[in-house]
Here is the input.
Amino acid sequence: MLDRTNQQNPTETQTATLEREEGFGSILGGARHHEIQSYKEPGQKALDAATLALLGAQAEDGHWRYDLEADVTIPSEYVMLQRFFGRSDRDRERRIGNYLKRRQQKNGSWSLYHGGPGDISATVKAYFCMKLLGRSKDELPMVKARQWIRANGGAESVNVFTRITLAIFGQLPWRVVPAMPVEIMFLPSWWFFSLNKVSYWSRCVIVPLLVIFAKKPTIKLSEKEGIEELFLSDPARLRNLDGFRKDSIVKNFFIGLDRVLKLVDPLVPRFVRDRALRLAERWMREHTKGPGGIGAIYPAIANAAMALRLLGAEDDDPDFVRQMKAIEDLVLDEEKETYCQPCVSPIWDTCLSLSALSEGGAPNDHPAVQSAVEWLFDNQIFVGGDWQENTKGLDPGGWAFQYENDKYPDVDDTGMVLMALLRAGAHEKTAKKKRLHQALNWVLGMQNPDGSWGAFDVGNNCSYLNNIPFADHGALVDPGTADLTARCIELLAMIGHKKESPAIQRAMEFLKNDQEEDGSWYGRWGVNYIYGTWSVLAALGVVGEDMAKPYVRKAVRWLEDHQNSDGGWGESCNSYDDSDLNGCGVSTASQTAWAMLGLMASGEYSSKSVERGADYLTRTQNAHGEWDEEEYTGTGFPKVFYLRYHGYSKYFPVWALAIYRRNRCGLKTRQEEIMEKGPIDLGPLKFANLTS
Here is the structure.
């Protein structure tokens, strides 16, 4: 179970400070911001309270980590994983059952996010989990779930990952699972399909699944634990669930290939298969070093644990032990409920919290700032990873998302960390410049040929692979996106690179071509168009773009037009499915903060929309200085997997209100203060040809 004891409450000193002084500057010990202190109005009080809450959530070693919640599939899979290994914790299982019960909707289904429509795969997994926990199919919640499932295509309509789960537990024959021959391990990088052509998350999930598919385990259940009642037809007779389509030649090619592979699978010589299994095992073990588990994401870790067991690993096998511990570290036990996180987000939470505090006036020598800076530097990655396959000669230096995921640093975290460190004055320390230089060079080296940036790899954009039957989630690759590209533009501009530099020019061209007809930008890693539009406007404002240009004003108008009547902004995850819902949804603190930050970056500091947004945040703040937010505003895989970052409603409102207050007091942002001092010289860059 994840240790949460390192998170502290506001100290007595912090509380006493708040009681003595009303100003934000005094809370952080920032005398240089006395002007903010003297500017007293309700918005200042809200900012003070939110800042104190943020400070109180900081761990003793300087970092922040908030809970990260997905849908019910992962806690359901956790129960199934324990069953796979013959383990059981009745008390924990009871609490997981409570969590599933609370998340069930009135129509009997389970959704992928708060307030969303029922999802067939999530509902089948939750129903199956409830039966494994001992619930009778005749109980009313189970009856309602079963009726909903059968009315929506039955259990035969689930996605591929759910099919695999059901096959493992004997509820579906293995032949309905798309072919995943372990001999994929032999395929070279130049072939139309190889491990290096898929995304990091797919790579970590696929390799263990190759082993599982080769072994085809079947866990026997009692009759009362089975879910035959969820199928519209006899599951034992099902065969080809992926049918040919009239409108897709490429998809039909892969469906045909899938059927051929299933036919030849039994004919593969034993020595060939054994060699492929050894390669897969070696790959897994090489990627399991460190306590974070393979890929530091639950599906990959769980699959790897099962694969290692199928390959003969005993309970004392060091790699197996690491996987099981990594899984337990994701479990959050509360008094009445338990759920399992998909991963943890400490780097992301820390750099965003640090930026919010810095923009709020925290001086660079404040203990909270200093400890956060040191913790971030302590977690910088200097070992190689899979990203090197397409970036020969590029040295490491980035940051990952989780505590331990050295093989997979990502551009988004690295960019945000660098900007947070710059706001905290890390570049003013000679000893830190080399570290910043390494990270910046790594980001530059990760730019795609089209000028964009993806998350984990360069040139990972073979979109035809999403037609493979296995890839029904539509996220097998990691192409460049507007939000990440904007993040890198903002970083380069903050360092001092001009918009005329080749790297920024290419990136700007990508953004212009990627803008939606209505003026917004798609948000790949946050929900959705509000997130994407904020990211781009923030970059354009910093890089010195003419904010009067038509394409910029179009984006500004889009944000203004989508403000809710209560003054906030909100957008449902449904906007990924229905373009008519772009920018539409109940107001949330995090999305309101994004919209405000986007508008203020475009120069709309004193606009009525921004004032109404600030008023919304002030009015909706709870007694603890935070904001209640049940909505999911983070994105895993668009349309299939969403995230509720519990920290988003904690630090983003602080950031937005801090910028708003600075403007009201006639003060520049911390980012502007840094840029006014001129370009930051971190030393010669190996990829200088991209920026000069």
Observations:
- The first strand starts at residue 68 and ends at 69.
- Strands lie at 68-69, 331-333, 338-340, 634-637, 641-645.
